[in-house]
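W.,

You were right to be curious about this one. When I first looked at the sequence I had no strong expectations either way, so I just let the prediction run and decided to look at it fresh. Below is the sequence, 169 residues in total, followed by the output.
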Amino acid sequence: MSRDIVIGEVVRAHGLRGWVRVRATGPTLDGVAAGEALQLTLGGTPQAHTVLGVDGVPPRMLMLLSGVADRTAAEALAGAIIRVPDSRLDRDLADDTFYVTDLLGYVVTIGDQPAGIVRDVHTGRGNDVLEIGPDDRSRGDAVLVPFTRDAIIDFDRSTRRITVRGDLL
């Protein structure tokens, strides 16, 4: 089953001819090339676009997208989330590297107490933060835990389990 993966965000318009400045949420945006299909989501509405041009590299990357012919159309895309099918992602990763979305659903314990599952991952400038809580979002509050070597004492890919330091919370 294929799912869409967030690889970036449209930051703002650039120039008068429809170019947009984009921000990468990981290394994948750097590999986008002219001719590639992307899905942009703005306000919950998905929009299909084809990349017509790319200039620069993250963090100063620009894109020209199909259907975006002028500054007004480019400005309307500010804040749009850029997605690609997960089949496009490189799965030949180093042992200590993974995609953030792969963490969703991991079972988490804090010390030796069950805490729930990873419901979301919030990216930040310093580090990512795991949102941990019950599988059913309507039950119980979430706990936010920094995804750092200091906070995580065990990370097991094979069993999809994460153990957080018990004295952290």
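Here's what jumped out at me. The CA atoms of residues 129 and 146 lie 4 Å apart. And, maybe more interesting for your project: The longest strand covers residues 4-14.

Coffee later to discuss?

I.
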